[in-house]
Amino acid sequence: MSETKVFKGLNGLSKTVKLNNGYEMPTVGLGTYKSQAGEVEEAVKYAIGIGYRHVDCAWFYKNEREVGVGIKARLDEGVLKREDLFIVTKLWNNFHDKKSVVPKLRESLEFLQLEYIDLFLIHWPFGFKETADNLPTDGAASYSDVDYLETWEGMEECVNLELTKSIGVSNFNKEQIDRLVKNCTIKPVVNQIEVSLGIGVIPKSVTKTRILENFDIFDLELDSEDIAYLDSCNKNMRISPMSAYADHKYYPF
To answer: Active site at which residues (predicted)?
Structure first.
């Protein structure tokens, strides 16, 4: 497939939103959750080639090495600079202890072959013991009682060490965000959560035609009939509730 299509927006490529610390975040990014080995490297290379500048990763996805190979391949071409990209990764639940935060980000940076990322997120507000499985099945025995406020102190240290430009959260509820904002030094720039109108999105795909379709949206307009249809689809259902951990003291939903 040709990689010559031009898109509108930042540098002719993508629209952005300004975060509360002044940095610009492209509103459409490539999601990498469940992207398999042997596929995600090429997906990242293709996406960047057609204009994506935002790539969303996570330690939990177990594919940061391949994502990093794809990013490096594009940077090595010399057409793009590192500052042209917006790279995100996330801290998994087993590493909420403050002392674990910086080392886990350094590990992700090594996998991604980067000196810094643009946004580092706490993946979920509740933690597991570091010795537990990544998705434990033995209930409270595997839970960590580390307060996400302590975790946030480690996140702030990542900013101070210039390992990330911005920090944020994912899957937090309103009360948790309010509590965090009242007790932090550096405010979160985003809460990455399920789809709402008017926010940045990170559709996942490793299929070239879909990667292209997901990005070719900046001239799209929805009329009142489209909106009415979308409203009729509402089922008040969460796609990823993590309900197995609903008894955790920091469970958000």
So the answer is: 61 (proton donor)
